[in-house]
Amino acid sequence: MGFLTPMYELSKYLEWTRSGEVQLPDFQRGYKWEDERIRQLLVTVLRRHPLGVVMLLKTGNSQVRFKPRPIEGTHFSPDTAANSCCWTVSSVSRR
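-> structure tokens emitted (95 positions)
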């Protein structure tokens, strides 16, 4: 089985995050960005520069042995997250 490299608009990732479809793996560290890094990311997005890599792993099968957790700042029903097949996300970019 190979890897897929689909291209999605940023708005789609945000929609998935708000709905609980995209979550973090339980081992992923929390939010650590300073204000300057946030500003730089926004400038990158607004200028339509490439953003780097985001890895998504589809959960809900016996081979995935960690639990997803909501991304900080999202608010959705725990039932929504528990009953939907979600993706866990890990940024590969470490600056």
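Residues 54 and 91 are 5 Å apart (CA to CA).
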